[in-house]
Amino acid sequence: MKKIISTNNAPAAVGPYSQAVEINGTLYISGQIPLIPGTSQIIEGGITEQTEQVMKNIEAILDAAGYSFSDVVKSTCLLSDMANFKAMNEVYSKYYTKEMPARAAFAVKGLPLGAMIEIETIAVK
Questions:
Q1: Which in 5, 32, 43, 46 has the greatest CB count within 10 A?
Q2: Are 29 and 120 in contact (CB under 8 A)?
Q3: Please, are residues 31 and 106 in contact by the beta-carbon 8 Å criterion?
Q4: Number of domains observed in the structure of the chain
Q5: What are 32-69's pLDDT values in tens digits?
């Protein structure tokens, strides 16, 4: 049975989508940008601060659904500039320290609200 996951500890969806959907023991988290929960503001700073906020948003959704970073099997990272890859990777690696998930990273032309990063996540129990 499909279950919609929503938490006030992560930014509300800014369009016709859910923060996350769980079905058959798999959690699909929509792409998270560095919005501060409860606001429509992107966190100030550069790629390090933005990646940290994205990871906090993902963590809040994982927690709300009863998952953790150890359950994550796949991440897709969208970057506004591949020059930010190394700095993003430094923050990202603080959250995945063993049994890292599969991952893809892409440079894209633009992200919502001028964000420098967006990460979508899949977790399995």
A1: 32
A2: yes
A3: no
A4: 1
A5: 999 999 988 999 999 999 999 999 999 999 999 999 99
Residue numbers of the domain that contains 33: 3-124
Q: Is the pTM of this model over 0.70?
A: yes
Beta carbons of 78 and 111 less than 8 angstroms apart: yes
Q: What distance in Å separates the CA atoms of residue 76 and residue 61, rounded to the nearest whole number?
A: 16
Q: Is 8 exposed, middle or buried (CB count within 10 Å of its CB: 0-12, 13-18, 19+)? A: exposed
Phi, psi of 113 (to 5 degrees): 60, 20
Count of CB atoms situated within 10 Å of the CB of 87: 17
Integer Cα distance of 80 and 98 in angstroms: 27
Q: How far apart are CA 122 and CA 69, in angstroms?
A: 10
Which tokens is 48 given?
């390090």
Rounded to whole angstroms, how far apart are CA atoms 80 and 114?
A: 9
pLDDT in tens, 6-23: 999 999 987 899 999 999
Q: Residue 29 belongs to a domain with what CATH number?
A: 3.30.1330.40
Assigned token pair, 70 = 């150890």
